[in-house]
Amino acid sequence: MLEPAIGIVLQRFEALAADGDEFLPLVMILCSILHSYMVDWSIRGDALCVAARFGQLTTVQYLVDTGAAVQHENNKPLKLALAHQHHQVAELLRSRGAYDDPQA
Predict the structure, then answer these.
(1) Is 70 exceeded by the pLDDT of residue 40?
(2) pTM to 2 decimal places
(3) What is the DSSP string of 35-97?
(4) Looking at residue 88, which CATH number applies to its domain?
(5) Domain count across the chain
(6) Lower Cβ count inside 10 Å, N or C end of the chain?
């Protein structure tokens, strides 16, 4: 029941990030709601991908600190950070266990 709403929230994250806005407050609210309803935590990985893609360092830090998997979808957050030249985000992800794909 919450999945469509979560998808809408992630789309909103992308719109905010594309405009250069920090979306950490929304991520914190979403994580709180997910915890309350015991929803699948993989959504944190999806939010981490969006944050990494747009260089949202503070949001990436928060998500990683609260349990987002840095190796989500075969290190997709790191790949997105690197593809979009967000080197600080990439270094943070590497320091938390993400790794470069040697076959990429």
Answers:
(1) no
(2) 0.72
(3) HHHT--THHHHHHHHHHHHTT-HHHHHHHHHTT--TTHHHHHHHHHHHHTT-HHHHHHHHHTT
(4) 1.25.40
(5) 1
(6) N
